[in-house]
């Protein structure tokens, strides 16, 4: 089901596969972000990073904004992901996908005690810095990469 840009709604070897259809082979970024989060949750970090990086790479074709869905053509066959004419952009589900991917890359988790924990996925490129992250009653500045820095600012 992997296109190189994201997870398709139907595998390319299935009889009904059509990469330019609505739900029979297209890529939906919000589905892909959920897949990446599930993969990471079960310790499949290499696969989670592949999905995350594929979606983030695809977003560059739309100036950093992911559309509702796009064609499921294989990345080895097309230089950039192919948009679907009926796809909405911006669109609420796809707008939330990069936020879930960011949380995933940084390993941000709220604790039962209202505290924030940071456990980034190893193998990410460079540091990610977030300021003003709210969790429980606190506000944090977070830097994650080769090292982790978590500062409660209020």
Q: What is the strand and helix layout of this fold?
A:
Layout: H1 29-41, H2 45-59, H3 92-106, E1 108-110, E2 116-118, E3 128-135, E4 138-144, E5 148-152
Antiparallel strand pairs: 1-2, 3-4, 4-5
Helix pairs in contact: 1-2, 1-3
Features:
2 domains; alpha+beta; 3 helices; 154 residues
E-strand count: 5
User: Kindly, what is the distance between the CA atoms of the first and last residues, rounded to a whole number of angstroms?
Assistant: 44 Å
What structural class should be given to the helix and strand makeup?
Answer: alpha+beta
The portion of residues forming beta strands comes to: 15-25%
Report the principal-axis shape. elongated
Structural domain count: 2
Protein model, in words:
It is a single chain. 28% of the residues lie in helices and 17% in strands. It is elongated and about 55 Å long. Helix 1 runs antiparallel to helix 2 and helix 1 packs parallel to helix 3 (92-106). The chain has a three-stranded antiparallel sheet with strand order 3-4-5, with no helix packed on it. Strands 1-2 form a two-stranded antiparallel sheet. It has helices at 29-41, 45-59, 92-106, and strands spanning 108-110, 116-118, 128-135, 138-144, 148-152. The chain folds into two domains: 1-104, no CATH class; 107-154, no CATH class. The chain is of the alpha+beta class and 154 residues long.
């Amino acid at each position: 089901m992997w296109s190189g840009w994201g997870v398709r709604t139907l595998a390319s070897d299935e009889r009904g596969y059509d990469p330019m259809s609505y739900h029979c082979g297209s890529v939906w970024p919000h589905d892909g972000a959920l897949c990446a989060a599930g993969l990471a949750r079960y310790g499949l970090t290499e696969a989670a990073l592949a999905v995350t990086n594929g979606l983030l790479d695809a977003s560059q074709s739309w100036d950093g904004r992911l559309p509702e869905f796009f064609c499921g053509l294989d990345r080895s066959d097309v230089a950039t992901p192919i948009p679907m004419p009926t796809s909405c952009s911006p669109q609420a589900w796809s707008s939330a996908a990069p936020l879930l991917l960011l949380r995933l890359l940084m390993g941000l988790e709220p604790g039962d005690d209202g505290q924030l924990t940071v456990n980034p996925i190893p193998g990410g490129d460079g540091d990610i810095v977030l300021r003003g992250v709210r969790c429980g009653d606190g506000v944090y500045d977070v830097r994650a990469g080769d090292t982790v820095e978590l500062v409660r600012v209020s």
